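BUG-214 | component: ligand-complex export | severity: low

The export step for zinc ion jobs runs without errors, but we want the raw record kept on the ticket for reference. Input record follows.
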Amino acid sequence: MSSINHHLTDALLMSYASGTLDEGFSIVVATHVSLCDECRARMESFEAVGGSLVDEVDAVEMGEDSLEATMALIDAAPEFDIAPKVSGKVLPQPLFDYIGGDLDDVHWKPVGGGVRQSVLNVDGGSQVRLLSIPGGAAMPDHGHNGLELTLVLQGAFKDDDDRFARGDIEIADEDLHHTPIAEAGQDCICLAATDAPLRFKGLLPRIAQRFVGI
Ligand code: ZN
Ligand code: ZN
């Protein structure tokens, strides 16, 4: 039985399955799916639908060129190994492959308050980073100018009444203003992707933002 309580939306799974989600968000989606049987099953059903759509389009004689162009687009999408794997690693397989190692191989940079981050190099408009937040510490209070996906890999955080632990994903957008707080104990390690800068309420986080680039 999986203990994951917070999942991906159909829209995110579909855009991943169709190869149209950009690389930063794709890493987060693939990493969640590798940990989550429920989302993997939904993803597979979307992939099946996508495959039959391509067949149908083929049948009504989509011009040879445009079909080729569509398939090239799908082929160009980053591919991750989303098969479930049991291992002692903290980083699930898609992320392990991307970084080329486990947590010990991550190049952390301190960003203040004991928080550390490691920005991953990705193409496209989104930014993705690993965050390590000391147990009991709060993230700066912030809003969002776009979409933010936060996947927990170790430890847990609370956001109002919701608790997010390994495998759980929090999806935030323009409507959500929040202050996630890491649970006491183990450092909370998260993988977070955003497609627009966060909106910080306090002056200090806003100044820090210019240096940290969140
Ligand atoms: Zn899920
Ligand atoms: Zn947020």
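Assignee comment: Attached the raw record above. The chain has one domain: 1-214.
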